[in-house]
């Protein structure tokens, strides 16, 4: 019974980690629209040897840089009243320059 209780406790802890909110590493405001911001970020990420993909929603652009050993790095750019709001999720320590590029384009 102790092994079962220990396994149940471990699964409960893991489930709590998986459902924890994902706070952005960086939040920025920009005078650029989401499409202008994405047009700035995409080539700069490619210059740094990242392989970004871009998707467009009704009010936002999402730029994802995949990682084989960690969670993907993500930039979400949303339309705001005076330009845009940008949320950066830098999830891999092996991606130097990702947040810097996001700041430079803001």
Output the keywords.
alpha+beta; 106 residues; 5-stranded antiparallel sheet
Describe, in plain words, how this protein is organized in 3D.
The chain is built from 3 helices and 5 strands, in the order αβαββββα. The protein has helices at 2-18, 34-47, 98-105, and strands at residues 26-30, 53-56, 60-65, 73-80, 83-89. A hairpin with a 7-residue loop joins β3 (60-65) and β4. The radius of gyration is 17 Å and the shape is globular. The protein starts with a helix and ends with a helix. The model is unreliable at 7-21 (pLDDT under 50).
Question: Can you summarize this structure?
Answer:
This protein has 106 residues and is an alpha+beta fold. Helix content is 37%, strand content 28%.
